[in-house]
Request: fold
Amino acid sequence: MSNPVPLLAARGLTKAHGRTPALRGASVELRPGEILAVTGASGSGKSTLLHCLAGIVRPDEGSVTYGGERLEELSEKRLSELRRTEFGVVFQFGQLIPELTALDNVALPLMLGGAARAEARARAAEWLERFGVRGQEGLRPGEMSGGQAQRAALARALVTGPKVVFADEPTGALDSLASEQVMTALTHTARESGTAVLLITHDAQTAAYADREVQLRDGAVVPLGVSA
Ligand SMILES: Nc1ncnc2c1ncn2[C@@H]1O[C@H](COP(=O)(O)OP(=O)(O)OP(=O)(O)O)[C@@H](O)[C@H]1O
Reply:
């Protein structure tokens, strides 16, 4: 990578859910425009790490720095502004709003940001087309295939022009063809727009789309290639 300055950096994160430790001193850096895969066994802390990095969950110890700001020092208001304007999130089951069409799902974040409905819908249509969801704009999520719905969810995450997209097992519920289509669309668009991606996956084929991979074990990042 040409730019060594991290966009997002976690240092020494610990987090327990009740008495269950999820993170035990995890440190990781994401550079601008980088696609980073975080892999690891079930329960190793991948989702918890993503939630801390995205400012959804506050760690018990350690710090998360985004740009020049330390997330743990920010007010809820500033955090939610960051999440709305700088971050995009995609989960395993796209979590589109079932009552809205694909077009309105993608237009929604723009409208929440103050765009007029017609403008938001026009931009949403462009983004759905970029993600290969053509002719499906008027369908509700339940009427789409898993892969189409997931590509619509990606369009929704990227439509606002975020600097970072957090993708938590975005292909976890898809067959291999749909997974390939989703990952191709995500990585192509992220590279084109210079968006960094933090990709959580336990699937080696999905991780292979990333520029770099780090592995979590028992809540800490271990060098790749170290066996259990
Ligand atoms: N809300 C919660 N309440 C209690 N324990 C939790 C909660 N969320 C996670 N955990 C526990 O914390 C540990 C780490 O979970 P986490 O979901 O971060 O791991 P993961 O690597 O993403 O797992 P998976 O691949 O199965 O999703 C696990 O032992 C899990 O059972």
